[in-house]
Amino acid sequence: EEKYDQGLKKSRSGFGERLNRFLARFRSVDEDFFDDLEELMIESDVGYEMAVRLSDELREEVKLQNAKSTQEVSNVIIEKMVELYEEAGANEDDSIHLAEQGPTVIMFVGVNGAGKTTTIGKLAARYKQAGQKVLLAAADTFRAGATEQLEVWAQRDGVDIVTGPENSDPAAVVFDAVKKAKDDHYDILFVDTAGRLQNKVNLMNELAKMKRILTREIPSAPHEVLLVLDSTTGQNALNQAKLFKESTDVTGIVLTKLDGTARGGIVLAIRNELHLPVKFVGLGEKVTDLEKFDASDFVYGLFK
Ligand code: GDP
């Protein structure tokens, strides 16, 4: 909870405080009130559809609860946001699927700069601390420095890594890594991938090839394909997500840089429009700045 507190400072000053200011000058629950509220939510990236639904349901709920004071209305808003979030993902599992036997394989996809490498570094530290034998695969062989960046994390975390030469076939790195994970009995393998969206067809073919190789070596793999999205890019992140979702079987979202955005509402839009669980959120650049997503902590963090 403390992490959300720190990490959501900007969203709070953007969204939470604006809402609180808005509520402070609010006199009666009339049409203008709800119109303005709807606008505020759209600006906070909760998505148009979600904003309209929220304000519609709030109209009802405020009436039903006969909420009059600012505090009462604010509580209703928070309750509704958590409820709508949880409802939108009622059938979704936000835990990480582990292999029943042998190594668990988690692939990370997303555009360059979204935070894949950093997220892997943070997660690897966590699993290592939990006593797991962790292996990293640096399958982003195209971006200059990507392999070195992951090597720095591997060293810092004290975990092993498989790399390949620059511009080599990323599928070869994946092949070497999955073999090593099997042969040397690793518990978990994290696969970093390239994110060159300039060449969508190539990128998607490349991801498909990696998946095939993983599945050939370990039939149940990959156990997760996590799409990493930069929350500061707002609606752009949503559009990227749609693209990746169409071409790969994404199993969950990691939403990074929530500490750097005033638009934390994007979390609601993702759940509502993509129907994918947000599994982790990035709340800073440090190794500990990664949290399992919790809707209630998150929404309360926005308004606190
Ligand atoms: P990749 O290209 O997808 O592998 O992205 P990187 O992991 O290299 O991240 C790009 C930049 O975003 C780096 O400078 C990271 O330190 C930064 N970054 C990643 N996650 C977060 C986060 O949750 N919060 C903040 N503030 N920065 C982040």
TrEMBL record:
Residue ranges occupied by any SRP54-type proteins GTP-binding domain in the UniProt entry: 277-290
Keywords: Cell membrane, Cytoplasm, GTP-binding, Hydrolase, Membrane, Nucleotide-binding, Receptor
Presence of keyword Methyltransferase: no
GO cellular component: cytoplasm; plasma membrane
Subcellular location: Cell membrane; Cytoplasm
Keyword Nucleotide-binding included in the entry's annotation: yes
Domain of life of the native organism: Bacteria
UniProt binding sites for GTP: 110-117, 192-196, 256-259
Enzyme Commission number, as recorded: 3.6.5.4
Family membership: Belongs to the GTP-binding SRP family. FtsY subfamily.
Role: Involved in targeting and insertion of nascent membrane proteins into the cytoplasmic membrane. Acts as a receptor for the complex formed by the signal recognition particle (SRP) and the ribosome-nascent chain (RNC).
Name under which the protein is recorded: Signal recognition particle receptor FtsY
Species of the source: Limosilactobacillus gastricus DSM 16045
Lineage: Bacteria, Bacillati, Bacillota, Bacilli, Lactobacillales
Underlying gene: ftsY
Coverage span on the entire protein: 129 to 432 of 438
